[in-house]
Amino acid sequence: MIAIIDYDMGNLRSVQKGFERIGHNSIITRNPKDISNASHVVLPGVGAFKDCMDNLRNYGLVEPILNVIKSGKPFLGICLGLQLLFSEGEEFGRHKGLDVIKGKVVRFPSELRTLPLQVLSRGQNLAPANSQIKDFEDKLKIPHMGWNDIKIERRPPALSDIQDGSYVYFVHSYYVVPEDKAVAATKTNYGIDFVSSIWKDNIFACQFHPEKSQKIGLKILKNFGDTRG
Q1: What is the pLDDT of residue 116?
Q2: Distance CA 185, CA 202 (A)
Q3: In terms of residue numbers, what domain contains 197?
Q4: Contact 75, 201 (CB under 8 A)
Q5: CB neighbours (10 Å) of residue 130?
Q6: Cα–Cα nearest to 99, from 111, 118, 89, 86
Q7: Which among 101, 77, 106, 72 has a CA at the least distance from the CA of 90?
Q8: For the residues 81-100, what does the mean pLDDT come to?
Q9: Using CA atoms, how far apart are residues 157 and 26, in angstroms rounded to an integer?
Q10: Which of 21, 146, 160, 174 is the most buried (most CB within 10 A)?
């Protein structure tokens, strides 16, 4: 059974539906016993870094999360669930995270530039047909929202049979900067190259949303669910 951690941050049902579609049973829970007894654990999240950490503490979920990670069970972080694993976040001040992965979470620079073919929305070029490249460069927005590709640096079980350059769905204004660059599993370009997923021991965590990434995302969820601890 897969435990999806409920701490009142994010659309947990969409994650559960993703697992249902590929035949894996899951429960949405904040019960430490359920989390401890699960075969796999998922930490999703949408919202502000500090608010999410406050909720994890208030619900008494920090210790169960750290314990299940130490146990070696497959652990998946999604979006803010990736960021919370890091030492600290810089959203609205500096706030301590779970400190499982040494590093920090920082905001995208205010001015981002890229070439038209590097950023896609629903698989389509964002640049109007009559636009100049420079005009399009100046229009990159924060948050980074829509479809973008992943460049595979290392291949954890969750990325088995996932093609390099596959497109997945992002919604975020902050990105992770690990101290140990070797934990990066994928990188993505949005004006700058950033780490879009990490892999360390039993942990795979991604900035993108596999539950919103159609066939590629469902394959990632299936790979995770099939992973043995």
Answers
A1: 52
A2: 13
A3: 2-226
A4: no
A5: 6
A6: 86
A7: 106
A8: 96
A9: 19
A10: 174
CATH number at residue 187: 3.40.50.880
Q: What is the mean pLDDT of the chain?
A: 91
| DSSP per-residue codes, 1-50 | -EEEE-SS-S-HHHHHHHHHHTT--EEEE--HHHHHH-SEEEE---S-HH
Question: Which residues lie below 8 Å from residue 158, measured CB to CB, with a gap of 6+?
Answer: 76, 199, 204, 220, 223, 224, 227
Residue 34 main-chain phi, psi, to 5 deg: -60, -40
Q: What is the pTM of this model?
A: 0.88
Token pair for 58? 């208030």
Mean pLDDT throughout 67-86?
A: 98
% of the chain at pLDDT higher than 90? 81
HSE at residue 123, side-chain half, CA atoms within 13 A, is: 3
> In degrees rounded to 5, what are phi and psi of residue 210?
-65, -35
Number of domains, the chain:
1
Closest residue by Cα to residue 10 from 181, 176, 209: 209
The DSSP bridge pattern shows strands 192-200 and 2-5 to be unpaired
Residues carrying an active site annotation: 79, 209, 211
